[in-house]
């Protein structure tokens, strides 16, 4: 089981069920798709659409505030690129929100119930490593867009790292949808990696540094009281 989370009613756990052996293209698993189950493990149900096993893998399900849909990451096993998708809670109406070329990963869905960030997805670009001359950035895309061409045109960048040296990843929405926490990192060739937590408005303004520890801090998350937590 990977990337566990809760359904909106708190009655079931949603997770990626991984089934080996890992003998598919790029040593991918026979199956790595979304399921739900009761907290005691009973009542397991498949959530991902049928027919994708061994070709795609689904991870990191996040439900909308009203429970009407969820977003998730789909990995294309042939080249290990990922994209953000959405679907209904019954597994139908699957839509792609970001192009494969962006390699979007670690998406988080704003839980704002109104305002400009309602239904807005924050994600990191180049989740499996940036191409030469580029760095990772934080970007947003509306979960309500369709088709993919329109969604691509609605991607907005929150950070603008260009060719570096800084890189940004691990976005996390505040509970009110007003700020995004993320990891800002440097990987110098002649010293230890430096990673700190920052927050920013969705339009990229109002950057604030939260942590200043010498340790590498990453994967921030917000408590209900809007306090930040991070790994180090």
Structure description:
The two termini are 23 Å apart. This protein is globular. The protein has a four-stranded antiparallel sheet with strand order 1-2-3-4, with no helix packed on it. Strands 5-6-7-8 form a four-stranded antiparallel sheet, with no helix packed on it. With 232 residues, the protein is an all-beta fold. The chain folds into two domains: 1-96, no CATH class; 110-232, Neuraminidase, CATH 2.120.10.30. It is built from one helix and 18 strands.
Q: Helices and strands in order, then pairings?
A:
Elements: E1 2-6, E2 13-19, E3 31-37, E4 45-46, E5 56-63, E6 70-76, E7 81-87, E8 95-96, E9 105-109, E10 120-124, E11 138-142, H1 148-153, E12 156-157, E13 167-173, E14 180-186, E15 194-200, E16 208-209, E17 218-222, E18 228-231
Antiparallel strand pairs: 1-2, 2-3, 3-4, 5-6, 6-7, 7-8, 9-10, 10-11, 11-12, 13-14, 14-15, 15-16, 17-18
Strand content: 35-45%
Q: How many whole angstroms does the radius of gyration measure?
A: 18 Å
- CATH class value of the largest domain: Mainly Beta
Q: Sketch the topology as an H/E string, one letter per element.
A: EEEEEEEEEEEHEEEEEEE
Q: Tell me the CATH superfamily of the largest domain.
A: TolB, C-terminal domain
> Averaging pLDDT over every residue, what do you get?
95
Unreliable stretches, pLDDT < 50, 5 or more residues?
A: none
Tags for this entry?
single chain, 232 residues, mainly beta, Neuraminidase, 2 domains, four-stranded antiparallel sheet, 1 helix, 18 strands, 3% helix
């Amino acid at each position: 089981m990977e990337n566990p989370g809760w359904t909106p009613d708190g009655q079931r756990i949603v997770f990626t069920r991984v089934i080996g052996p890992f003998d598919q293209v790029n040593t991918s698993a026979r199956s790595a798709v979304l399921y739900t189950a009761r907290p005691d493990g009973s009542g397991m149900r498949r959530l991902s659409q049928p027919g994708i096993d061994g070709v795609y893998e689904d991870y990191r399900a996040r439900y909308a505030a009203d429970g009407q849909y969820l977003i998730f990451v789909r990995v294309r096993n042939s080249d290990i690129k990922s994209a953000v998708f959405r679907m209904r809670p019954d597994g139908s109406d699957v839509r792609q929100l970001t192009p494969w070329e962006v390699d979007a990963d670690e998406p988080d869905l704003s839980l704002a119930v109104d305002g400009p960030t309602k239904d807005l997805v924050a994600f990191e670009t180049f989740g499996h490593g940036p191409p030469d001359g580029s760095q990772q950035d934080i970007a947003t895309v509306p979960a309500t867009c369709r088709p993919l061409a329109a969604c691509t045109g609605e991607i907005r960048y929150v950070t603008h790292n260009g060719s570096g040296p800084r890189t940004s990843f691990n976005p996390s929405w505040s509970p009110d949808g007003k700020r995004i926490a993320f990891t800002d990192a440097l990987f110098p060739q002649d010293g230890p990696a430096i990673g700190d937590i920052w927050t920013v408005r969705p339009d990229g303004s109002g950057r604030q540094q939260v942590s200043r520890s010498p340790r590498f801090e990453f994967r921030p998350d917000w408590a209900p009281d809007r306090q930040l937590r991070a790994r180090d």
